Amino acid sequence: MTFPWPVAWALRAFAGLVLVILYGPLAVAVVLSFFDQTGTSVDWSSFGLQWYAKLFANRGIGEALVNTFIVGAGTVVTSVVLGTVFALYFQYGGSPWRGLHRAIIVTPFLLPPIVTGLSLLIFFREVGVPRSLLTVVIGHTLLVLALVYRTILQRLQSLSPQLIEASYDLGATRAYTFRRVLLPHLASAAVAAGVLAFALSFDETLITLLVTGSDNTLPLRLWAMVRTGFTPDMNALITLILAATAALSVAVISLVRPQP
Amino acid sequence: MQTVKHRWKDRLQRVLITTLVWTPPIGLIVLPLAGFLAYSFFALDNGEIVHRFTFGNYIRFFSDAVFVPQFLRTCLLAAGVGVITLLAAYPVALLLWSLEGRAKHLMLVLFVIPLLMSYILKIFSIRAILGGRGYLNTLLMAAGVITEPTPFLLFNLTAVFLTLSIILFPFTLLPLFVTLERIPKALIQASSDLGGAGWLTFRRVVLPLSWPGGVIGASFTFVLALGDFVTPQMVGGPTGLTFGRIVYSQFGLAYNWPFGSALAVILMAAVLAVLALAARIGRSQGGPP
Asked: How far B46 CA lies from chain A's nearest CA (Å)?
């Protein structure tokens, strides 16, 4: 639909304003990451990468980053495998209970993260599972599973049943059909879902706060740093993470975008 | 003989698959939620959790003068965040929808980046802007709007409201945008072929078909705003207490897990009621499933 030009320009102006509000705080941080400042007065002559250098010498950020990658990888593998198995069960399992099964899987995504986190916290305590990165992976997996499952199920439902029948007719076994017909069809959906799962896991804060042990992921490390007060190398960190996020967003959108 | 053996193997396989497929959701979703519900009926005795059924926690919630008003205030705050993001998201979604090709892709990326950007760092950068010596104050003073820094911008509920609105905006925008994208082009064409002027087409075709998506997006935002405890803690200060913070504190300093669970159950009930309502609106109006 095309809008008459005054409306189109009004919409553009408004969207621009929203972008300024969304990005303004981040832009300020990016600019300031290259300068020294005292209070709100900025020393504009101090342009340089000094805060980046300081950041890399910093307090547990590297360790937290490694933990975050471990958790992210664990979450991607677990959620994609479970998501695929559950989607296959829904589509081909022929169970009258499959609707209930799906509803249960989607639940943690719909609940506020604090409820999912608390129920796991209580559960781990009652069962006697010590909190660690493993419990964080479980929490993250439950959160992203709904999205991964949906993405893969949608792809599965777009597969014509005739293709599978044809494969059987040609004498292929179930395992062979799965490997040569189903898996290739699901591959790109699984990759897209995996990237999305990683992106969500990378920044998950609320559930992680509740189910982690003594190990910090990056968001928790940041949360601890922010609470102890401001240091200018935070601006450098904001800049780096913004750049990484922008790259990741482009990847996610290109993958998730429905093919024309 | 062969077939009997075959059937037996088939049945074994079926049992194995069923067990495999049902164990994770039941073990890690249903049981923890059930345990959490059960905890809300337990009590605390000398810092020890007593596994004995009682309504005490719920009675405390409804009889204490603090909790109910606090809960309602937080609901109102979250609803406000939902409404304001919806009002802001609608024009943006319309613009995204009307764009084509590369421009559309680029704008979509721009609006999605903040969604994936570190949550803590986003709050942190907003806090730096809002602070008493922050840039918004400096800017307002330079523009002559105020003569001295206003403390109203940080460490209160207004700051929580502003910060949550900025952070959760994409959650309202995306479902709305997806719903707009699903409107068949032929419908718009038909409306204008029948002489529906632009405004008429918008009011009679686009608006009715897209607002359920907006309601669903805003209700996601409501849910996230209601349960958040990190944002209020970072920008709320002592007066910006929200229900999520109270729940969280029961698992930290206050150390009363059963009471915290009861509070979270009440939070969950509110969330489920809102989601059910949104889903109903979405279904009756043909929004996203």
From this structure: 19
